[in-house]
Design goal:
Strand content of chain A: 5-15%
Number of helices of chain A: 5
Strand content of chain B: 5-15%
Largest interface: A-B, 26 and 30 residues
Helix content of chain B: 55-70%
Number of strands of chain B: 8
Structural class of chain A: mainly alpha
Oligomer: heterodimer
CATH superfamily of the largest domain in chain A: Winged helix-like DNA-binding domain superfamily/Winged helix DNA-binding domain
Order of helices and strands of chain B: HHHEHHEEHHHHEEEEEH
Structural class of chain B: mainly alpha
Largest sheet of chain A: 2 strands, antiparallel
Mean pLDDT of chain A: 91
Radius of gyration of chain B: 24 Å
Order of helices and strands of chain A: EHHHEEHH
Number of strands of chain A: 3
Number of domains of chain A: 2
Strand order of the largest sheet of chain B: 1-4
Largest sheet of chain B: 2 strands, parallel
Radius of gyration of chain A: 16 Å
Number of helices of chain B: 10
CATH class of the largest domain in chain A: Mainly Alpha
Mean pLDDT of chain B: 91
Shape of chain B: globular
Chain lengths: 133, 372
């Protein structure tokens, strides 16, 4: 996957790394079992602090997206085809979705348009080829 | 004297061509080692410096072409060659540095990065599916090493009490040294060092940070992969060429073949072929693969520009020191070479080790293969 970090963005770098990895899995670029670079290697490739990548990977691990082994390093733990979501995920996700949809409502985006855009984004997922480890 | 004058002329031509080619073959977004956004690569300030530098290099070359052979004939000493080379090289570096300062000043004055979105990009597949060391390419080099070693072992007992020495580019049968295993097997030791160390260097280069452009992540990642593959093959094939040259020199040292001008020329031919391949690679692929043509349907501009990291680069893009960057080995901005990140604590012990080795070599405490 290509990981581009916007250095002028207000979104912290670790959050951008986390978001890009989740998007790459949804897009199908990464699938269950795909390997990710080591934290040190990715930090060197992006010329950023090693602790920033560590924080992103730790976040992804906590959220159940990747698993980190001593031997195999960071590996994608699940993708869209790995079965139903774990218990409690949907409720936690809905809390964040509420904020996102509230923004749409505040800025005058109608319910129909919000739903249509949600559909477009969902439809774009899973269109890229996976790279299993 | 005529030979020295001709050698002076050839060196001047070679240095002038090299100095002219450096900015011409460099990456467009790094004119004279200054990072510029994509829309500034043809800025009038950059174009003016390119023209000025080219003109100055050609005038300097013309002057040197007149002065250095004349000095060689008048003074009658071969030292003109060394002094002339150093002086011309230093003047060319000064011209490059002046152009670097001028482009850098124009960038600062015009605030070229205002309104841009700076980004950095990585291709994780270069790590999870990396370019690997092409070991089969090393096989000819290894075979040549064994062939030379076997020939040396076969010949060693029959060697005379003294051996001819390597002087300049050829073997001089008049200047002789005592036959010792170290003197006799010097070419084999050089071959062994090259054959062992070059794959290590290639492995390190393959792991170094890729030079990707955030403006075109997909295209630059594809081109960098081609560049790395080509470079790895070129370096390992270069070892075979160097080993062949060393074998051809060794058979002269061991007096199997009588040294003549033709034999000397043939001996250096493999290395000349390797140098020619490097030039062709530089022209066709370019630094970080920037000269490779884009593939049909390749991504449009991403809207980002590659991060402006000028403040970490010194001496016109030759030295890099960034404490916040965990990378140890980074691609130099000018020329297809890599340099150490002097801001990384690991770089200093490496440099200290190399420095101590160089010092011991100069003092004669250790005998590096290249000394022979």
């Amino acid at each position: 996957m290509l990981l581009t970090i916007d250095l002028d963005s207000e979104v912290p770098i670790y959050q951008q790394i986390r978001d890009r990895v989740v998007e790459a899995i949804a897009d199908g670029e990464l699938v269950e079992g795909s390997a990710l670079p080591s934290t040190r290697q990715l930090a060197a490739d992006l010329a950023i602090n090693f602790h920033t990548v560590n924080k992103a990977y730790d976040l992804l691990r906590q959220q159940g997206v990747i698993r980190i082994n001593r031997k195999s390093g960071a590996v994608v733990r699940r993708d869209a085809g790995s079965g139903p979501a774990e218990a409690g995920f949907a409720d936690e996700w809905q809390v964040r979705l509420r904020t996102l949809l509230a923004e749409a409502a505040v800025h005058g985006l109608g319910a129909d348009e919000a739903l249509q855009r949600c559909g477009e984004v969902l439809g774009s997922f899973g269109t890229k080829k996976g790279t299993p480890a | 004297m005529i030979m020295i004058a001709l050698a002076c002329l050839s060196l001047v031509a070679l240095l002038t061509a090299a100095a002219w080619a450096v900015p011409a073959l460099g990456r467009p977004t790094l004119p004279f080692g200054v990072r510029v956004p994509g829309d500034r690569v043809s800025d009038p300030a950059v174009s003016a410096q390119r023209r000025r530098y080219t003109r100055a290099v050609l005038i300097l070359g013309a002057l040197a072409a007149v002065l250095s052979p004349s000095a060689a004939v008048l003074l009658g000493t071969p030292h003109v060659l060394q002094v002339g080379t150093v002086a011309l090289g230093a003047a060319q570096v000064a011209l490059f540095y002046a152009a670097h300062r001028a482009v850098s000043a124009a960038k600062r004055r015009g605030n070229w990065y205002a309104g841009t979105r700076q980004a950095t990009t990585a291709d994780t597949t270069l790590r999870t599916d990396p370019v690997r060391v092409p070991w089969p390419v090393l096989v000819p080099a290894a075979l040549l090493l064994f062939l030379t070693a076997a020939t040396g072992l076969w010949r060693f007992d029959a060697l005379p009490g003294t051996l001819p020495t390597l002087r300049g580019v050829g073997v001089d049968p008049a200047v002789r040294v005592a036959t010792t295993p170290a003197a006799a097997f010097a070419p084999v030791l050089s071959q062994a060092a090259l054959t062992l160390l070059t794959p290590l260097l290639v492995a390190a280069l393959l792991r170094a940070r890729p030079e990707l452009d955030a403006a075109r992540p997909l295209g630059s990642a594809r081109r960098y992969r081609v560049y790395l593959r080509g470079l790895a093959k070129l370096l390992l094939a270069g070892v075979a060429c160097a080993n062949l040259t060393l074998l051809l020199l060794a058979v002269q040292l061991w007096e199997i073949v009588t040294p003549t001008a033709i034999v000397t020329a043939v001996a250096w031919l493999p290395l000349a072929a390797a140098a020619a391949a490097c030039v062709v690679f530089g022209v066709r692929v370019g630094e970080a693969g920037h000269r490779l043509p884009p593939e049909p349907g390749e991504e449009p501009d991403s809207g980002f520009v590659q991060r402006d990291d000028d403040r970490y680069w010194h001496l016109a893009g030759m030295l890099y020191a960034n404490r916040m960057d965990p990378a140890i080995l980074v691609h130099q901005r000018v020329g297809g070479r890599w340099t150490l990140n002097l801001g990384n604590p690991v770089a200093w012990p490496v440099l200290a080790g190399l420095g101590v080795l160089a010092l011991l070599s100069v003092l004669g405490v250790v005998d590096l293969p290249s000394n022979h």
